[in-house]
Amino acid sequence: MNYSNINANDIPAPYDVLVGVLTIDEIIRLAENVKGLQIYFRNGEYEHTKAFDIMSCTLGRHKAIMVCRMFSGDSIYFPSINHIYREQMQRQIKHEFDGYNITKLALKFNLSEKHIRNIVGTAKSKNQPMEGQLSIFDYE
User: Fold this and answer.
1) 92, 98, 103, 109 alpha-carbon torsion, rounded to 10°
2) Same domain, 31 and 62
3) Domain termination site, one of 81, 98, 114
4) Is residue 100 domain-shared with residue 74, that is, in the same domain?
5) DSSP label of 22
6) What is the domain count for the chain?
7) Helix (H) or strand (E) holding 33
8) Could you report the per-residue pLDDT of 26-64, keeping only the tens digit for each?
9) What is the pTM of this model?
10) Gap between the Cα atoms of 50 and 38, Å rounded
């Protein structure tokens, strides 16, 4: 998925508190590297911890110290990057849905057709024509 059109309002917790400290690109890189980890940030001890190592490799030493200070003493769960953009992806799918392109959307967003139907709110029915199927009433 293309993350270039993400703005600060689309970013959920705990990443949202980082918006003033990090750029959106840095937050995305951080989310890609910590995907689904629960990290404990020790009080006052930043270096030589798992949290600091992850942050400094991703953001650089200075910004890693800033992030570790922000979360000092807390245990924070960082959701995967896909979770961050779920709502935006669903809005984009609804916007691109034209009633007949479920298969194309499933391939584009790497989701199942059933999942696309759930997002756009259409149920597959035996009475509905298949995607691309011609109707006998189209030739009047």
Assistant:
1) -10
2) yes
3) 81
4) no
5) S
6) 2
7) helix 24-34
8) 888 888 888 778 888 878 777 777 778 888 898 999 998
9) 0.58
10) 11
